[in-house]
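In response to reviewer comment 3 from the previous cycle, which asked for concrete evidence that the modeling workflow produces usable outputs, we include below a single protein chain processed end to end. The sequence was submitted unchanged, and the resulting structure tokens are shown without manual editing.
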Amino acid sequence: MVRSDSPFIVDIYLVSIRWLLLLGSLLAMAGESTVWQSATVFVWLAVGWNGVLLSMAGRSQRLTRHREINLAIDLIFSVAFVFSGQIPVLAKFLFLLLPISTAAMYFNLRGALYASLFASIVHLVGTPTPLSTYSTVFSLAYGFVYGYLSQNNYDRIQLNRKWQLEQREKAQKAETNRIRAIYNHSMTITSMLSYNRVLEAALDLSTGALFVDGGISEETNPAPSEEIISAMLLDENGFYKVVSSRNLVGLDENSTFAADDGLLALLKIEKKPIVVRNLKTDPQLSNLANLPDCGSVFALPMVSGYETYGVMLFGHENTDYFSQERCEILGIVGRQAVVAMQNAKLYQEISDEKEKIAEVEEETRKKIARDLHDGPTQSVTAIAMRVNLARRMLNRDLALTSEELVKIEELARQTTREIRHMLFSLRPIILETEGLASAIKAISEKMKEVYGKSVLLDINESVARRVDSNKASILFFIIDEAVTNAQKHANAEHIRVQLGGVRNHPDIVAVEIADDGIGFDLDEVNKSYDKRGSLGLINLRERTEILSGLLSIQSKPSKGTVIRLFFPLTEQALETLRDPGHKPFISNA
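The workflow returned the following structure tokens.
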């Protein structure tokens, strides 16, 4: 059994013809009781078979080799009917037209001629009367005419089907070209790493996508791309600024609009494309010179997630220019432009981050050089000078020489401690082996041992253990940087380091480093910080950003310095920490 999604029209038409022929045969036998009894079985078999064919046609079904089986059964029924008894010639003639009709419908002219020839021979043999000759000639003519018409209709259907296939292939080819062109446009945009180039190319590629080969029919709208007015507006601190445009009046190319009213405000809320007939009544965009005169304007918000980058505006003089297809094309290119802008932005951020890393590395080298120059280098120089002095005193005063050697030994030990402290700051092995709490304690011990400074610790070890190794390493360097700055620059006698959780927010870690040093004016330092040789505060802020944390620095001259740091351990804690109304504080309870 074969099933089709569409009905077999030929089968339905043939069944209708067969009903007429069967009805005519029955009418031709009316009043002949003896004839009726002898032929009734074949008539009812033909009626039943036609009912089966009608049922299958209604369900769009066919038998395997449906045409051959149908013709064979009609031929068998016709022969049996003709030789079943004394039946009127007209009834036989009408019944013999069944296989001729079937052959004409299924096998066109050739099949109809063969079937009519076969039916004529059967008719002549089965009914050898003068009237049979005329009916035979008529059946041959019926087969020829019916077959010719069927053949002609078949050829016409085949030509129409061929034309439809060609049109379908042409449409598919055009669609393929359109998709390929849009894909190439998208790849061109996304491959750009310059933010400014992306902004300039987005409008050109958006407009060009409407006129790719096969994209939009020229018969639909033959307007050239020059007739399209387009502009890209980027969101800058709540205002939309025109950063790129095509066919706008020169004075409008750098316009800025508020996003609190009109179409721009609606786009910011809805975040969906909108087609408007004109912008003459818009409180913001109506200030443009020629865009409000367009018959239709397509506004496409540039959105990624919950973030809105800006709006792309396209205007055309035709009121129905922006059809659904054109809007979809512009939407595709617009989304790719957003992706390209994100890529360009990320690339720029990576480039800036590389520069920052290079600056940090350079600052680290300078710091090591300063520390070596201020500490071990001068100490080694002093040791060399004192050894030379001791050598000269050796033959004059042994007691003074002995005292000098003791001082040289102590200076050498101090230098060794300073070098070890530097190595500890560069790579704290204890952080990898014993954890964050032990590493912070080691900072306190090193400060006491090397510089004689007291570092008071208040460490919640359960909180410290929850900090993963990557964040622990960054946090260690932040604390070490802050403690070192307090010792070297603030001349602090006491330094306090506190690490714990935040009350009611156990997934937020709070760190505080406070000293009783000389302090400084934070505003004055920030104003001239780019001219200073040290990058200590920048290092603290950048490392805090890596932790996704918040940094607070409070200091006044002669009042000491307090540095507070808060960073999350989970994504939910990050959302809580970023809440403007959240004011965390340290708690070790």
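The CA atoms of residues 22 and 95 lie 7 Å apart. We consider this sufficient to address the reviewer's concern, and the full set will be provided in the supplementary archive.
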